[in-house]
Design brief:
heterodimer, A: alpha/beta, Rossmann fold, 7-stranded mixed β-sheet, globular, B: alpha+beta, Dna Ligase, domain 1, D-amino Acid Aminotransferase, Chain A, domain 1, 3 domains, 6-stranded antiparallel β-sheet, 13 helices, 22% strand
Chain lengths: 293, 398
């Protein structure tokens, strides 16, 4: 499901300061990083990982199906198109502030190539006990304290809240099979609906916790999908930012968080999700409802 | 960033779209002169970066230069949605037999750009039921071809020369939409004159702030800059926070929105700040500010922001609450907060109501705080409970 234990992973932009720290944490957790790519830096090594100038060279020597893209915003389109052209099937884009035209171009070609995109503007994803992509959870000790294997998936528009929710579930004896920061932008590669579709067919998942925010239509889309298709999964949603409903046109936190022209309000999202049979937690602590083992 | 009408018209004209040309003036005298030069009846419009100005009295029709002075003065005295009108446009009044709507925006569900057209344009188009607007997703690399534009125009019920013309305009409009990194682009109304010419009477464009770096040179729009994001002029405190945030590119520590409570908040990341702000209010607390901290800011940024938040008159305490941090260092946060409190000349044991940053470097943070007599709460205290404690707590000293 999304990321297998034996999947080989590339990191694009591996020689950057933040990517370098991330690579060390990922390796510590058991992620199989086989190569890095930074144009012009081919031949170097980062934490023992060989660096190549092009994705083509990297995959020729180290066949890979997953890439973590950690390059500056103006370079994201080109780097991701390079990954897709190199046969990558799961691409995680960590970079913030990617223009949505670039995101859209990436997704258009990714669809044709059968490549799944997570992000942009995500801290990553993790399958507890198996592997992680991105900086999610931070250092090994923190990842192990926050995430333990189990049967609940977490899908979150906030990277920080992904770990917070996992840590909260873990402290109540509830493990996780997958946690994904879907990205804080208005348009992302895999939204709640895309991922729920995957989880529906995954026998290791029983329940899902959704973390939503004001702005965008991800929660409304999910509600509509559930109305039409139903689900076998227990879904609990927690939506933050109720106060933003009263402050039209002001952006808070992530790029997508804004209520405009009455659209994207938390009240509207809660109503839609409840109508679709989702349990909506009024307080953070309520996300445990119905999950206890 | 939302462009003003005259900026939209200049831009679209440059790309070969037909728009009714206008002159921009900022005094009644200049408006009179402009109408005289036109030598016909004219329309005066307040230049403000949002729709609905017609209904709000921001558009005036004048038959002669004599009528113009009063109309122009009225418009220049207007304040619409708390934005004072500084400029008005003068353009020839057209005799239209039909008003059409054309536009493009993003469909975040389909993850593609979408072209829109309705044969019932003008000020009512947004009130009209969605069924009257025809939509067509398009290729983000190419926009619509002419034939696809014609297909869309046909599906909107247009025919003959009008259909062909609207089809061409749609093709051009979608190409411009992609070229300028627009979030929305509308020509409304797109008027059809008695002699079958199509001409845009009003236009709206919003350019994506995140693409501004590559559009600045291309667009060359005088006086334009990315929006501040708050919808009202920033306060002194908010501006000071922005300066703190921009003094170092590492991490975020300064996106502040001021409120009129007595509890200063240093909260993050992006999602937890929303969660905590809601919870503080639900528990009866009165936040002095919203803010967002994350992405591993430096100690200096945290210290400067802490001191700033505590400098607000009426603030009594500070709550520091973050989610289990991934890459932000809790010890750097702790040292920064203590340094900021010291700069403000306050006693940390009295001013900190709660400090809750579990995660990376949590133990080191706990030790730093303990030396100053402040207790660090761990992850076993949920965001909700920490927010409640921040409201209830007497100053926290173990």
């Amino acid at each position: 499901m999304l990321l297998d234990r034996d999947a080989n992973i590339l990191v694009q932009g591996i020689t950057g300061r933040e990517a370098s720290a991330m690579v060390s944490d990922m390796i510590d957790y058991g992620s199989r990083i086989v190569a890095g790519v930074t144009p012009g830096k081919g031949g170097q090594e980062i934490h023992g990982v060989p660096v190549f100038d092009t994705v083509r060279d990297a995959v020729a020597q180290h066949p890979s199906t997953v890439s973590v893209v950690s390059v500056p915003a103006p370079a994201v389109l080109d780097a991701t198109l390079e990954a897709i052209a190199g046969g990558i099937k799961l691409c995680l884009i960590m970079t913030e502030r990617v223009p949505r035209l670039d995101t859209c171009k990436i997704l258009h070609l990714a669809r044709q190539a059968g490549c799944t995109v997570i992000g942009p503007n995500t801290l990553g994803l993790i399958r507890p006990g198996i592997a992680k992509l991105g900086t999610i959870g931070g250092r090994l000790d923190n990842v192990k304290r926050s995430f333990v294997p189990g049967r609940v998936a977490i899908l979150s528009r906030s990277g920080g809240m992904t770990t917070e929710i996992a840590s909260f579930l873990t402290s109540h004896g509830i493990g996780q099979c997958l946690a994904v920061g879907v990205g804080g932008d208005p348009m992302v590669g895999s939204n709640f609906t895309d991922l729920i579709r995957l989880l529906e067919d995954d026998p290791t998942t029983d329940a899902v916790v959704i973390y939503g925010e004001p702005g965008g239509t991800a929660e409304e889309q999910l509600a509509q999908y559930l109305q039409e298709h139903g689900t076998r999964l227990r879904i609990n949603a927690f939506l933050a930012g109720q106060f933003v409903d009263d402050m039209e046109g002001v952006r808070f936190g992530h790029a997508a968080v804004m209520v405009e022209g009455g659209h994207g309000s938390i009240s509207g999202k809660k109503t839609a999700l409840r109508k679709a049979g989702v349990f909506v937690a009024e307080t953070f602590d309520d996300i445990l409802t119905g999950l206890a083992s | 960033m939302k462009l003003l009408e005259h900026q939209c018209k200049q831009l679209l004209t440059r790309f070969g779209l037909p728009l009714n040309q206008q002159v921009i003036v900022d005094t009644p005298d200049a408006a009179v002169q402009a109408v005289r030069n036109l030598g016909q009846s004219a329309v005066l419009k307040a230049q403000v970066p949002f729709g609905g100005r017609g209904k709000a009295g921001g558009v005036k029709f004048v038959e002669s230069p004599d009528e113009t002075r009063d109309a122009a003065k009225t418009l220049l005295d207007l304040t619409l949605q708390s934005v004072p009108v500084r400029q008005i446009s003068v353009e020839p009044k057209l005799s239209l037999k039909r008003e059409i709507y054309v536009g493009a925006t993003w469909d975040t569900s389909a993850k593609l750009p979408v072209a829109l057209v309705s044969q019932a344009g003008g000020i009512e188009v947004e009130d009209a039921d969605g069924g009257q607007i025809q939509r067509c997703l398009f290729d983000p690399f190419r926009g619509l071809s002419d034939y696809q534009g014609r297909e869309l125009a046909c599906s909107a019920g247009l025919s003959g020369k009008t259909m062909i013309g609207v089809g061409q305009i749609l093709a051009k409009l979608t190409a411009v939409f992609l070229t300028i990194d627009a979030i929305t682009l509308e020509i409304n109304p797109l008027g059809e004159t008695e002699d079958f010419h199509l001409i845009g009477v009003d236009a709206h464009i919003e350019i994506e702030d995140d693409a501004w770096y590559r559009q600045l040179d291309r667009l060359k729009i005088p006086g334009s800059q990315p929006s501040s994001g708050t919808g009202r002029p920033a306060t002194e405190l908010e501006l000071a926070a922005q300066r703190i945030d921009s003094m170092d590119h590492r991490g975020v520590a300064g996106r502040v929105v001021e409120f009129d409570g007595d509890l200063a908040l240093l909260i993050g990341g992006g999602g937890a700040s929303l969660t905590v702000f809601d919870a503080i209010r639900r528990h009866g607390g009165r936040p002095a500010n919203y803010c967002e901290v994350g992405g591993n800011p430096t100690q200096e940024k945290v210290a400067a922001l802490t001191a700033l938040l505590l400098s607000k008159p009426g603030v009594r305490q500070l709550a520091v609450i973050m989610n289990v941090v991934n890459n932000t260092r809790a010890d750097v946060m702790a040292a920064g907060v203590l340094e900021g409190i010291q700069r403000a000349g306050l006693d940390p044991t009295k001013v900190v109501s709660v400090f809750r940053i579990p995660g990376s470097w949590e133990q080191e943070a706990r030790e730093i705080l303990a030396r100053a007599g402040v207790e660090a709460l761990g992850r076993e205290i949920s965001l909700d409970r920490a927010s409640q404690l921040a409201v209830l707590h007497e100053p926290c000293n173990g």
